[in-house]
Design brief:
The complex is a heterodimer. Chain A is an alpha+beta fold. Chain A contains 16 helices and 21 strands. The longest helix of chain A has 17 residues, at 2-18. Chain A is globular, with a radius of gyration of 26 Å. The model of chain A is unreliable at 1-10 and 13-25 (pLDDT under 50). Chain B is mainly alpha-helical. In chain B, helix 1 (2-38) runs antiparallel to helix 13 and helix 9 (247-254) packs antiparallel against helix 10 (259-286). Classes of the chains: A alpha+beta, B mainly alpha. Chains A and B meet through helix 1, strand 8, strand 9, strand 10 and helix 6 of A and helix 3, helix 5, helix 7, helix 8 and helix 11 of B.
């Protein structure tokens, strides 16, 4: 009975579906991903999936390349005034929006003002804080004057997607859902169904990089197993993410290639050591500063670093696929990453020696060391956000590893909001496992470690070093790129020496594509991002 | 004549009582629902945006956007709930009254996560859920009841045992596990394993669109049916066995009635009572969707929306979804009560 009913159902369905032929011809690249854009409005969007679509449908002044460098995109040239406060961009002629209207300096100036003036846009006006005025000239030029000279205007402009003035000037900046999504980029919006799919078609008239394929479809898969199965059976041509556990089985598939590398927007997993000095405790901003005093001692932090077996953590938590971490600045930042630093080797005996020498002895023989004065055993609270999948395993490993050197941990997962409240600027914790997403520019993550950020809540460790603060101020205005790189590298050396954080690893991006459908995926760059414009405009169907 | 009138009054009283209770429960849920999300820890304005770079002005603007800058109920200086403190405002400008007022206008608020109206999101998802779970429920009820009937009639034969074991197995299968097994099987046989329809299918002719949806529905519906039919079968079987052992069935047999007549006229109606309860409860929770099935097959239903809203602390969506579920469970129970009064008139006199 059951069999028959199901049989009837499936036959009926197939007959119905078959009576009109398949989807439209041409080369359609189907991308499987686990998320979906939260909104198509660039002002209010937060999720990275939304930004992937923005990159495809919009253009911005600069294009960010996979090696971390920037290319001028919408403008032919840029000139900078002698005081470095005025940038004049000569916009290319003949660029058109998808609805046929021309894209001019007017649209760009409108867009930048729009992002700046709406203060409740979560991200966009973070990139416009240095902008004093933005004007369009009759010669199709955009003139930006800054409030102070900054070294990285490219990094400010790269995410400011240019919107058509004729559509947005009358739109409600927050509630406008932007379903038509008129942009000027290499792909045009066809249809968007939240949590189902994003359907794009190629803009063959794109001024810079017209795609070779005809369509891209991003399809949402709510479970990882389905995502992996979809590429195995050819229901999608590429997947943007997968669990590390699936890598082995996919590597065995004949028509699938797995690529692992730094993500386009690198993320760092960090172990935060609360070392805020009581003198710096931001009591006016809710500072409680209940951290264990031993963590303020570099010797203790150094011993913990020596007792941390990063390779084991990577092997267990990331199945060996992540790269070991150094400082908060990830290797995915390319030139900004200081690859000349040597990490603290994993050496439990040495770690014990450091603690012995510094006077942290286990006087009562319970296996846990005490402060040099014999009180206050080295018993640290270790917290992590309860929505993290990897942190519990890391915490277990740390508890084992640090137990070897007489440091005891109390493990507890905490709700992310409660963790924020505990963290900063309250400093009501000892050790936390958390993470950062990095900008393409190192400024953001370096700023996290400055004294200025202790009361604002950005500083998680309470680290304060005047030398570091000075260097930070210098690099923030250093316009010579090579000099700035040298400063940034020097800063990484300082925080590495001071053991501000222990960084177990930089999170990898694991993607896979089918080799029997499209060729030309870009996989030889420092970063891996197949769903980015860089790959999607160059891939071609397999003949 | 008199007896009939009395029964009518009783019936009316019974119905009025049930409906009154249902209305009261809805009101209670409505109020509870509001405060539930106000006592949760964390700042909803920051919930969607986990970025420490967010400036103070931006946070304030976000709070104002979602109406969180207004007092929850009002500001009191004493414990006297009537005496509003000097810091108080017009009660109509408090979050609670705005919430209640909006509900009567059919507005559920704006999602923190997508900035879309909650009602719009819920309706979109609700339809998908009803489609999937509705089909699954109908199939599993039909198959389950028929199986149960058959097994009870052939009680203690090998057919009965086979049906019993199959049902027990099906019922005890973990839903997501069964779903993943079927997903592997289906994807190797060319069935789509994600979503509700092919992207771009909305331009197809209507009949083909339906076919496309039906194919996408196949695996999740199959999973749902297998898991739930076992439950219906077991209840149907045991309740029918109960009834079949009654004396009046023996009488019917003695009268020489056919098997079919006995089942149809004497046994089935009485055996349906426990099943109605279970069906009503299950139907009420239909709206909540089947989170596991929706997740395995990426079905864009309400269960998935609730799960996502929890992850993202999208309180307005959660609030709306909770209300929707509460109302539908209450409605389903009301319907069960009414069905009962029809199936078994004795309940009205209690």
């Amino acid at each position: 009975m059951k069999q028959k009913l199901l049989y009837v159902l499936i036959v009926a369905a197939f007959v119905l579906a078959a009576c009109g032929g398949g989807s439209g011809g041409g080369a359609t690249a189907r991308v499987g991903w686990a998320g979906s854009p939260d909104t198509l409005n660039p002002g209010t969007a937060v999720l990275s999936e939304a930004y992937i679509i923005f990159e495809l449908v919009y253009d911005s002044m600069y294009e960010l390349n996979l090696d971390g460098t920037f290319t001028l995109s919408l403008a032919d040239s840029v000139s900078v005034s002698d005081d470095n406060l005025t940038y004049t961009y000569k916009i290319k002629d003949g660029i058109k929006f998808h609805d046929g209207q021309p894209l001019t300096a007017e649209d760009i100036a409108f867009t930048y003002n729009f992002y700046r003036d709406n203060v409740d846009f979560p991200y966009m006006n973070g990139y416009t804080i240095y902008f004093d005025t933005i004007e369009a000239t009759p010669d199709n030029e955009v003139v930006i004057t800054l409030t102070e000279a900054i070294p990285n205007i490219d990094a400010q402009l790269v995410f400011l997607y240019v919107l058509p003035k004729h559509i947005w000037e009358s739109a409600d900046p927050i509630e406008f859902e932007n379903v038509e999504m008129i942009g000027s980029g290499p792909f045009k919006m066809v249809e968007y169904k939240q949590n189902e799919f994003v359907h794009l078609t190629a803009n063959k008239d794109h001024f810079r990089t017209p795609p070779k394929i005809s369509e891209v479809i991003f399809q949402t898969f709510a479970s990882n197993d389905a995502l992996v199965q979809a590429i195995k059976t050819g229901q999608v041509d590429m997947i943007t993410e997968m669990p590390a556990t699936a890598v082995e089985s996919l590597r065995g598939e004949s028509n699938v290639e797995v690529v692992v590398g730094a993500p386009f927007a690198p993320t760092v997993t960090d172990i935060i050591l609360n070392q805020v000095d009581p003198e710096n405790c931001p009591t006016a901003d809710g500072g409680i500063c209940s951290g264990h005093p031993a963590l303020r001692d570099r010797n203790v932090r150094l011993a913990m670093a020596h007792a941390t077996d990063k390779k084991k953590i990577i092997d267990v938590v990331q199945l060996g696929l992540a790269s070991p971490g150094m400082t908060l600045i990830p290797d995915g930042l390319g030139v900004w990453f200081n690859d000349g630093l040597a990490d603290y080797e994993y050496d439990v005996a040495k770690a014990n020696q450091i603690l012995d020498d510094a006077g942290y002895k286990d006087s009562d023989g319970d296996g846990v060391r005490e402060m040099p004065d014999g009180t206050n055993p080295l018993n640290f609270r270790l917290n992590w956000p309860s929505d993290s999948i990897d942190a519990p395993r890391t915490a277990e490993l740390l508890s084992e590893m640090w137990g070897e050197i007489g440091i005891e941990l109390q493990l507890q997962a905490v709700d992310p909001d409660a963790l924020t409240a505990q963290c900063c600027p309250a400093f009501d914790f000892d050790v936390m496992i958390w993470g950062w997403g990095s900008d393409p520019d190192p400024n953001l993550l370096l700023g996290v470690m400055t004294t200025d950020q202790i009361p604002t809540g950005s500083s998680e460790t309470g680290y304060s070093n005047p030398e570091f603060d000075d260097l930070f101020a210098q690099q923030a205005t250093e316009l010579d790129k090579d000099k700035r790189i040298a400063l940034v590298r020097q800063m990484q050396e300082i925080v590495h020496n001071d053991v501000v954080y222990i960084i177990p690893y930089y999170d990898p991006n694991i993607q896979a594509f089918r080799t029997d459908r499209f060729t030309g995926w870009i996989t030889d760059q420092p970063k891996v991002e197949l769903a980015d414009t860089t790959s999607l405009v160059v891939i071609e169907p397999v003949k | 004549m008199r007896v009939k009138e009395e029964r009518k009054v009783k019936r009316f009283r019974y119905l009025a009582g049930k409906i009154g209770w249902a209305a009261f429960t809805v009101l209670f849920v409505l109020v509870l629902n509001f405060f539930l999300f106000r006592v949760l820890p964390g700042d909803p304005a920051r919930a969607g945006v986990h970025d420490p770079r967010l400036k103070k002005e931006a946070i304030e603007a976000l709070r104002a956007r979602y109406g969180l800058d207004k007092p929850v109920i009002n500001c009191f200086e004493t414990l006297n709930p009537i005496e509003v403190g000097s810091c108080g405002v017009n009660p109509l400008e408090t979050q609670f009254f705005i919430y209640v007022g909006n509900l009567f206008k059919g507005e559920f608020g704006i999602s923190y996560h997508t900035n879309r109206p909650v009602a719009e999101i819920l309706v979109e998802r609700l339809w998908n859920t009803i489609l999937l779970i509705g089909a699954g429920q109908i199939l599993s009820i039909i198959i389950g009841v028929l199986f149960g009937l058959f097994a009870a009639w052939k009680a203690r034969t090998s057919i009965d045992y086979a049906a019993l074991i199959t049902s027990l197995l099906a019922w005890s299968l973990p839903t997501f596990w069964l779903g993943i097994i079927l997903l592997f099987w289906g994807s190797n046989n060319g069935l789509p394993i994600g979503g509700k329809a092919l992207p771009g299918a909305s331009t197809y002719p209507l009949l083909q669109q339906w076919g496309d949806i039906a194919i996408h529905m196949f695996l999740p519906t199959l999973t749902y049916t297998i898991v739930y039919m076992g439950e219906y079968m077991l209840i149907m079987r045991s309740s029918l066995l109960d009834v079949l052992s009654e004396d009046y069935i023996l009488t019917a047999k003695a009268k020489g009635l056919s098997t079919f007549q006995i089942l149809k006229d004497h046994a089935l109606k009485n055996a349906m009572l426990p099943l109605v309860t279970v069906i009503a409860i299950n139907l009420g929770f239909t709206v909540a969707g089947a989170i596991q099935i929706e997740t395995v097959f990426s079905w864009p239903g309400l269960g998935g929306a609730i799960y996502e809203a929890v992850l993202r602390r999208d309180f307005p969506v959660l609030q709306g979804a909770f209300l929707l579920i509460a109302v539908s469970v209450i409605l389903a129970n009301l319907l069960a009560d009414l069905a009962y009064s029809y199936l078994d008139p004795r309940v009205q006199t209690v």
